[in-house]
């Protein structure tokens, strides 16, 4: 009988973690454990995961120690998606996974590919990747480009996913013709379930993407769906997001062609690995978004 892997997602109630754990449960191929912070254990999302067959394990805080080792006993794959955890805390979690006998760690990446030194956000994640390799535990690095869910201007500023999203949506960089890769958040879990079930992805970097589009194309989609004709505006922005947008829209880092190169980590193309998965398109998402159904 084929061994059914036990997979723990920490944390399982965030946006990425929620997509991942739903993809695992939908696949029916894994014993699925939802790693939950103690402060989140009474959330309705946790009850829903229980009803779908996920085991719940509670992490008391973001300082991981020998008690964490016990929580990770029997886990084959640890998937990290903890928003707000420090690098030191994530290293402690990797140490606990090593002691518990976890065979593979999916590091807390879920972003856009680039080179070191381009922006702080990527560099901080690279530190954890280096540490996982140093510890000697099996790993998979997964990037997802930019979510469809932050590709379009929110209906009002109160619904921003990050500061400045509403105001900066119409900003054009250069000619606006640099491509970038996008993935619908809901598709991430579907791909992840296939990735960790595939021995080929062990100790590799995989890039998930749904489609590539330029900023001008995104604006065209938005205008078509919402008759958007706002003026292109510029303004102040936190340094980390300026660097991130420079990487995406000026350098053109966030595309599968670059992710595949040795300099960027030699990513495996999730769409080539799993051609039967049909990712949702930006247009599909925009239609639902502006209709108010997502």
Would you kindly provide a brief summary of this structure?
The protein is built from 12 helices and 11 strands.
Q: How would you sum up this structure, described in words?
A:
By secondary structure, the chain is α/β, with parallel strands linked by helices. The chain folds into 2 domains: 6-209, Rossmann fold, CATH 3.40.50.720; 217-291, no CATH class. It contains 12 helices and 11 strands. The strands form 2 sheets. It has an 8-stranded parallel sheet, sandwiched between helices. Helix 1 packs across helix 7. It holds the Pfam family NmrA.
Query: What is the H-and-E element order?
Result: EHEHEHEHEHEEHEHEEHHHEHH
Category by helix and strand content? alpha/beta
Overall 3D shape: globular
Number of helices: 12
**Low confidence ranges:** 228-237
Secondary structure: helix percent: 25-40%
Oligomer: single chain
Quick check: average pLDDT? Answer: 89
Question: What is the assigned CATH homologous superfamily of the largest domain?
Answer: NAD(P)-binding Rossmann-like Domain
Radius of gyration: 19 Å
CATH class of the largest domain: Alpha Beta
The biggest beta sheet is recorded as: 8 strands, parallel
Protein name: NAD-P-binding protein
Organism: Rickenella mellea
GO molecular function, one term: oxidoreductase activity
Family: Belongs to the NmrA-type oxidoreductase family. Isoflavone reductase subfamily.
């Amino acid at each position: 009988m084929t061994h059914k892997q036990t997979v723990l997602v920490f944390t399982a109630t965030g946006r990425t973690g929620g997509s991942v754990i739903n993809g695992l449960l939908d696949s029916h191929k894994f014993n699925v454990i939802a790693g939950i912070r103690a402060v989140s254990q009474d959330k309705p999302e946790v009850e829903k995961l229980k009803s779908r067959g996920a085991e719940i394990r509670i992490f008391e805080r973001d300082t991981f120690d020998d008690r964490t080792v016990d929580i990770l006993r029997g886990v084959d794959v640890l998937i990290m998606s903890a928003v707000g955890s420090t690098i030191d805390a994530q290293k402690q979690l990797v140490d606990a996974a090593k002691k518990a006998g976890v065979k593979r760690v999916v590091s807390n990446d879920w972003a856009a590919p680039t080179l070191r030194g381009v922006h702080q956000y990527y560099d901080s994640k690279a530190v954890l990747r280096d540490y996982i390799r140093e510890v000697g535990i099996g790993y998979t690095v997964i990037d997802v480009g930019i979510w469809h869910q932050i590709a379009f201007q929110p209906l009002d500023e109160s619904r921003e996913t990050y500061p400045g999203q509403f105001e900066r949506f119409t900003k054009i960089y250069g000619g606006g013709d640099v491509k970038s890769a996008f993935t619908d958040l809901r598709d991430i879990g579907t791909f992840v379930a296939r990735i960790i079930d595939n021995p080929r992805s062990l100790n590799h970097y995989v890039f998930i993407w749904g489609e590539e589009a330029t900023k001008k194309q995104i604006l065209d989609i938005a205008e078509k769906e919402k008759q958007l004709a706002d003026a292109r505006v510029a303004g102040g922005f936190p340094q980390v997001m300026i660097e991130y947008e420079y990487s995406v829209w000026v350098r053109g880092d966030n595309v599968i062609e670059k992710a595949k190169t040795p300099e960027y980590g030699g990513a495996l193309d999730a769409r080539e690995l799993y051609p039967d998965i049909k990712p949702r398109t930006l247009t599909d998402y925009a239609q639902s978004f502006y209709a108010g159904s997502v």
